[in-house]
Write a structure and sequence with these properties.
The protein has 135 residues and is of the alpha/beta class. The chain has helices at 13-24, 45-65, 80-89, 106-112, 119-128; strands at 2-6, 27-29, 36-37, 40-41, 71-75, 96-100.
Length: 135
């Protein structure tokens, strides 16, 4: 099983992902884990793109070696196509669950995000946002 948690910076993706992973004995992975330099989180879009690719590769390897396992992946993934690309890349034939966290305002995301993501990056994420399921 693959659970994907989506949401803006500060929405609680990491907190929820870690809790679910502990409860369900699952692997938890997110690009933010690879954004630390000398123990300090450093966000920039180019490095984040590299971290996203690396975590996708890690997930692919994880499922190749433990096909019956459960992984939880947290990332913004603002567009539906971003989620579909991840699933395709993983050649995922298993059950996929997508959890959309409530969409925050730009101001709330700025206030709550602990990684100092720039306002213009959050604004871009908001303009790209597509809910996974229509209400």
């Amino acid at each position: 099983m693959l659970t994907i948690i989506r949401g803006l910076p500060g929405s609680g993706k990491s907190t929820l992902g870690r809790r679910l992973a502990a409860e369900q004995n699952a692997l938890f992975i997110e690009p933010d884990m690879l954004m630390y330099q000398n123990g300090e989180y450093k966000y920039d879009p180019a490095s984040y793109s590299v971290a996203v690719g690396s975590t996708h590769l890690m997930l692919r390897e994880f499922f190749a070696h433990t096909p019956q396992a459960h992984a939880i992946f947290a990332d913004v993934l603002p567009r539906k196509i971003d989620v579909h690309h991840l699933i395709q890349y993983l050649h995922n034939q298993r059950f996929v669950k997508v959890i959309d966290l409530p969409l925050l305002s730009v101001d709330e995301s700025m206030r709550r995000n602990i990684h100092n993501v720039k306002r213009e990056d959050i604004e871009r994420m908001v303009t790209l946002w597509e809910p996974w399921q229509e209400k």
